[in-house]
């Protein structure tokens, strides 16, 4: 009956603790900060274990993202963190697979700057449990390394202060009035009507935080001393948007399949989302000037993907010339993306069978609304591997940059017509 005795004293202890807000050494979980999302199901002060479920509202997208803070940690102790993903629902009420919310390794940080992975978790049906020794009084845990609106703002501001060729700007305000930070990298004194333009963006789906880290790796490479980056800047203006769906990132919602449709099903005559509208307008303008040559949309795929891959143009939107340019670009990226994440040879496409709004997917809109020599493409970087942390993601971004630079050594606007 020792067990009963313990639980009775545990109950009395809990009741006593209820009267006192926070005792020293009491674990406290919170998610009331930008990007935070967690409903606390249980905190066991004896076993130092925490159970949460993602708290996103399905009308604002798949509730697979979670991110919370734990305080009251005794430095050096080992915490057990569990996520219960058994009750995730899509906006239409149907079940969302727990796989979307349960990475093999969770992300954790002691300062919200350096994000590491926990060891492999223990999966039981729709739950996963990770243990982590923490050498601090507080720590943050998340589905993957967070990248929130303030990170986007800080990044574009930092680069524009540090590099004279970088100009930070506001792409637009969101429907909720938040600023969407962006930047352009365009060397002073080189403005001309003839320079090529490339456009790189991430996070049309808010939960896919890895896309923003790939984007950060790309843009930090683009301003670097790598001779390929220097050569790229010589002839190309680079537009970069770290987070498209700022509102759902800020509120910790998933964004994917939100009501009435998400950002990546919005590239239509009447876009609902301001960031999409602003991006379309700019891209149209660059294409009209015959300057646009490339558009890259950065995403994270499903849990079972273990290598990055491109979604390519469906046959319905391809021509021989468009396909030749796209194939050439991917072949070069395949040489660059080797370690630690090797580009997958598989290149699926997003045609009519993929989604009924397939024409409103950004890359497909680019393929149908801009000139034939423009490569519009989606890069999906796997999130469920031991390398799906900031450094791994940023390496993919650098490799993407090198692939773009090598591809653009020859101006695709001069490529021959093939049809
Ligand atoms: Zn996505």
From TrEMBL:
For the biological process aspect of GO, one term held by this record is:
proteolysis
What protein am I looking at?
Carboxypeptidase family protein
Name the UniProt key words of this record, in alphabetical order: Carboxypeptidase, Hydrolase, Protease
Q: Which GO terms describe its molecular function?
A: metallocarboxypeptidase activity; zinc ion binding
Keyword Hydrolase assigned to the entry: answer is yes
Q: Specify the Peptidase M14 domain's residue ranges.
A: 145-419
Read off the InterPro entries from this record. Answer: Cytosolic_carboxypeptidase, Pepdidase_M14_N, Peptidase_M14
Pfam (any one): Pepdidase_M14_N
Needed cofactors, names only, are:
Zn(2+)
The source's domain of life comes to Bacteria
Family according to the record: Belongs to the peptidase M14 family.
- What is the species listed in this Swiss-Prot or TrEMBL entry? Gimesia benthica
């Amino acid at each position: 009956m020792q067990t009963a005795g313990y639980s009775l004293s545990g109950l009395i202890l809990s009741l006593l603790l209820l009267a006192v807000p926070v005792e020293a050494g009491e674990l406290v979980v919170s998610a009331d900060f930008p990007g935070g999302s967690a409903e606390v199901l249980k905190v066991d002060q004896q076993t130092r274990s925490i159970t949460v479920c993602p708290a996103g509202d399905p009308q604002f997208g798949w509730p697979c993202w979670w991110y919370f803070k734990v305080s009251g940690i005794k430095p050096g102790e080992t915490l057990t963190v569990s996520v219960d993903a058994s009750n995730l629902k899509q906006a239409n009420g149907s079940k969302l697979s727990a796989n979307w919310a349960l990475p093999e390794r969770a992300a954790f940080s002691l300062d919200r700057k350096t994000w590491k992975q926990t060891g492999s978790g223990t999966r039981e049906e729709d739950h996963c449990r990770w243990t982590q020794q923490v050498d601090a009084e507080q720590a943050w845990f998340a589905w993957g390394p967070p990248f929130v609106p303030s990170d986007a703002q800080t990044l574009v501001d930092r680069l524009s202060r540090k590099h004279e060729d970088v100009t930070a700007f506001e792409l637009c305000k969101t429907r909720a009035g938040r600023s969407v930070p962006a930047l352009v990298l365009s060397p002073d004194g080189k403005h001309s009507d003839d320079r090529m333009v490339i456009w790189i963006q991430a996070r049309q789906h808010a939960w896919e935080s890895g896309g923003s880290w790939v984007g950060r790796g790309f843009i930090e490479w683009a301003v670097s001393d790598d001779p390929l980056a220097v050569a790229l800047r010589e002839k190309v203006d680079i537009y970069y948007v770290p987070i498209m769906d700022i509102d759902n990132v800020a509120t910790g919602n998933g964004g994917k399949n939100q009501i009435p449709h998400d950002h990546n099903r919005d590239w239509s005559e009447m876009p609902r989302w301001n960031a999409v509208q602003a991006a379309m307008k700019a891209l149209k303008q660059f294409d009209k000037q015959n300057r646009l040559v490339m558009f890259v949309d950065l995403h994270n795929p499903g849990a079972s993907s273990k290598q990055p891959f491109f979604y390519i143009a469906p046959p319905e939107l391809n021509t021989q010339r468009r396909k030749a340019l796209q194939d050439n670009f991917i072949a070069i990226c395949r040489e660059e993306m080797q370690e630690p994440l090797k580009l997958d040879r598989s290149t699926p496409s997003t045609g009519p069978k993929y989604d009924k709004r397939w024409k409103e997917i950004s890359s497909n809109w680019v393929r149908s609304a801009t000139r034939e020599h423009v490569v519009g493409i989606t890069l999906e970087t796997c999130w469920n591997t031991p390398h799906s942390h900031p450094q791994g993601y940023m390496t993919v971004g650098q490799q993407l940059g090198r692939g773009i630079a090598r591809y653009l050594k020859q101006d695709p606007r001069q490529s021959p017509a093939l049809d």
